Amino acid sequence: MAFCPKRNSLNSLRLILATVVAIAHVGAIAYGNQPRIGVTDVGALAVDAFFVLSGFLITSSFLRLGSVGRYLWHRALRILPAFWCVLLLISFGVAPLLALLEGRPPSSVFTGDNPSWLFALNNIFLMMRQFDVAGLPTGTDNPQVVNGALWTLYFEFVCYVLVVVLGVMRILARRGLVVALTALSGLALGLQELGWAPDIADLYLRFVFMFLLGVLGHLYADRLVIRGNYALLAASVTLVSLLLFTDYRPAGGAAFAYLCLWAAVSTPWLAPGPTTDLSYGMYIYHWPIITLLTTAGVAAALPMWAFGTLALLLSAGVAFCSWRLVERPALGWKDAALPGLSRRRRPGRVAPLPNS
Questions:
Q1: Among residues 252, 258, 273, 260, which one has the least CA distance to residue 206?
Q2: Nearest partner of 167 among 264, 70, 249, 50, judged by Cα
């Protein structure tokens, strides 16, 4: 697999995927529907692609750093500061404004059931335990969900920890064991799809399976053949799986993961991508922005394409501020000399992007 760490399409692809998720949520929040292929939401496909690419990059980061503490420090810096920032902005900015738009006193969000200050505390450790703020919003097609995009971040961090477990147990050094673990995850999903097993931990299985496919992409990068005709075959398998099954992943997940990796190395027109990484900010901020606009009546006043364009532009603007004011400064602490964190690095098979 001809992957160049300095010239690839990963930054562009992640921004495209975050934009696809935002577009899907425009329909879900403002109009009560979102695009689907078969019964699978297009937004869910984009999230699956995020996990595949994340598995590829995060494995690279872990092998390169050679330190569990330093690796977890990097991962925490990448995900937590901006996440905590959005929690605070929702609690003390978005929530009072939503109350005002819905004809309630802004101060009402700080009292009663599920007050706004509790929103930040309940969700501080990534697992989303509270989705509404004082019963708001009520004027969208996803009522009482002030940010429905954040829930996947918990599963992302679970996968980060999974890499640590696989590394410490030396499983990453035995590629066949990772293949077996990935196959077992896919088999469990398949048994659930067939109704032969209860839907236990289905979200964990979904995200772990897609993430492990990305891990395998890194571990077998020296053997993975990337060709356009293979990508076309993978696209066909993915499409058929989407159309035939409720859960396309057991039959089409591997093919979809191949498509993601093909796109990372075979789209030179998207490389090297933007130096300002807007993907994470776009992902975590688009939902409350769409919710505010919808509650304010903008969705009812504009055609869907115009409303969607406005929402994306505003989300991109906030994402730019998030990158410049929160994310990039936080990443500047990656190599800080901290007690218990080794600064030693060792090369892996594929070097990660600078912000990984």
A1: 252
A2: 70
What's the confidence (pLDDT) of residue 351? Answer: 38
CB 160 within 8 A of CB 72: yes
Residue with tokens 């093919």: 255
* CA gap 136, 27 in Å, rounded: 19
> Of how many residues is the chain composed?
356
**Do the domain assignments include residue 306?**
yes
| Interval 244-303: pLDDT, tens | 999 999 999 999 999 999 999 988 878 777 789 999 999 999 999 999 999 999 999 999
pLDDT at 200: 80
Alpha helices in 93-201 (DSSP H): 95-101, 116-122, 152-168, 175-193
**345 in a structural domain:** no
Residue 93, domain extent? 10-331
Query: Tokens at residue 268, please?
Result: 């030179």
- Residues linked to residue 36 through DSSP beta bridges, in sequence order: 41
pLDDT digits (tens, 9 = 90+) for 178-202: 999 999 999 999 999 998 878 888 8
Nearest 5°: the CA angle 209, 280, 69 is 65
Q: What confidence score (pLDDT) does residue 90 get?
A: 98
Distance from C-alpha of 239 to C-alpha of 237, rounded to nearest angstrom: 6
pLDDT attached to residue 343 = 58
Q: How many domains does one find in the chain?
A: 1
pTM, two decimals, is: 0.94
Omega into 272 within 30° of 0, i.e. cis? yes
Confirm whether 87 is domain-assigned: yes
Three-state SS at 9: coil
